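hi! just following up on the protien thing from before. the input was this:
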Amino acid sequence: MALNRFMTVEAFHADTFEIEQNGEGAGNVPVDESNLIAISIKKLTGTLPPVKIKVSNDIPACGGFGV
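and the predicted 3d structure came back as:
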């Protein structure tokens, strides 16, 4: 089954590491080093680089998508 729901992750140059969360679950997802994206980056690179990560999500959490 194909769905028209997406999570878009963009990275931009910045002075410090930052995560901006928009869309579904924005108020419920951590935007600090405990965010899964930040954890993944840190595991891959050993550090959090000075980038701004912008996450736009229209996939509802616990919305019946196999969760």
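Strands lie at 7-13, 18-23, 51-57.
The chain has one domain: 18-67.
cheers
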